[in-house]
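Tutorial handout. Part one gives the primary structure; part two gives the three-dimensional structure as tokens.
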Amino acid sequence: MASSTFLLRRLPLCAQTGRLSRPSYPAFTALQQGWSRTHIRPSASLYSTHAAADLDQTNKPYYITTPIFYVNAVPHIGHLHSAVLADTFKRFHEMKGRKAILSTGTDEHGLKIQQAAAQAGLKEIELCDKVSKRFQDLFDAANISYTTYIRTTEPRHAVAVKKIWDDLLERGYIYKGHHEGWYSVSDEAFYPSTHVEEKINEKTGEKYHIAIETGKEVEWTTEENYKFKLSAFTDRLTEWLDNNPEAILPKSRHLEVQSWLKSGLSDLSVSRPRSRLTWGIPIPGDDSHVMYVWMDALTNYLTVTGYPWKNMSDSQKAVCGWPADAQVVGKDILRFHAVYWPAFLMAADLAVPKKIVAHAHWTQGKMKMSKSIGNVVDPFTAMQEFGTDTIRFYLMNDGGLIDDADYSSELVAGRYKKLLAGQLGNLLNRSTSVALNPSNKVPKQPSADNVHPDDKVLHKKLEALPGLVDEAMANYRTTHATQAIFDMIAEANANFTHCEPWKLVKDPAGHDRLQTVLWYAMESTRLATLLLQPIMPTKTAEILDQLDIRKDERSWEHARLGQGWVKDAESRKILPGTPMFPQVKAKK
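Part two.
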């Protein structure tokens, strides 16, 4: 199999040392050469489905993943949504002082790649190199702080996949047999008859079949291949979900997976004959078959942790990150991540992910985005039109876990004008106004024991805000977090208007009250900006610089009422500047 060169922004974590350091390329070569076909059976006490509790997790970093993206087509706004969602939670945990790992990358094997390359007149690896770079360029442009960018055509990934295969084969969970069923080339998956429905082409009258779950066309296929005993894991998967009611978010997706399990599971095809598929990882010991793309692809989440963890101590394994704390996926690939993937892990005696977060999709004009319709949103164009942080904010503010969200330039412009410019930007400009605060000094902090009656509502909102945001982020609901933040900002603006500081500045007797009004406005801006850092890292840094908030005052412990400018407040200088959110117009 042809392999690509390494395309890593920050090379893989803990391949040998278990640290978040940058190992050299030869380190990976040594790891690959050191891999042995000798089977190493992990201890069940360490790698059972309860392994996360058994291993010392004291130093475990927070590990979150995006799905790896298929390179048969260029990235769209939905791909960016997955990446920004994962990046937001990774940054949030870093803000709280925890080391964090974020992996993303591209899925580069399978029949769709083979066909797309042939249509483009390219070798498969040439197509993979081209499209994978486009995804990496997008994530760099969108300020995705990934720690590893994984490609499934890398040699290190083949090592991990072969180890998983050998372990499952040795444990008796893989066998060779004949398989027939409805196969979707687009989904790279077989579907049982109960998950398929017949359709009629309105133009030709011809009958065809689609997978109910994805709407993709399927065809009846019969072939010899290797199969995984998925049916043997119905009870264990059911027990896992019953005992962990928040393992899959949102709750509706959790219930959906449980309903699948109640319907029963069939054994899963995990290889394709080389006569049908050549672009993939060969089955160890049988070159006439190629690895099923989903077993190959899903293993990437282990690859980036240095799996198979050869010659590593338990403490080194713990800081590699596994099991994943959260795996972000689109709802269309939930079955692969919530049924197949945990079953593979259980079969290999490895810990399952702690949480699977399945988000909804994006539409345009309330219609599903489709290349054939021509309504697919180019994320590069969107960021050029509105700026990176604006698009990041829109995706986190409007993109949900349950219901599909609509995308349009007009909607983005509306959120920008009303929330970013009209609320946050307006409060920043008001609180740093030279006309009201010509000294550019931080206003004197009022006593929390004697809050002015006009400030009590805002004061309570400021006290409650960190807890509301923390709860929202713990439940992976960025929309709830932004709602709480902008609810507070709206109250801060209303309070500012009600107190009329432009009148207080003209009255010497109103000096102390003016200082209090300005402090609440500035403190509201500071606190909101701190909490928006994971979503809008660049713009929030600019605002905090303007407010003279030092780099060591931007962590979670400072995201509390009254925890800004706690040292040397009298020497700080607020920088009045140009509008942080200048006017923008949506392009027609």
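Part three, for discussion. The first helix runs from residue 25 to 34. The radius of gyration is 27 Å.
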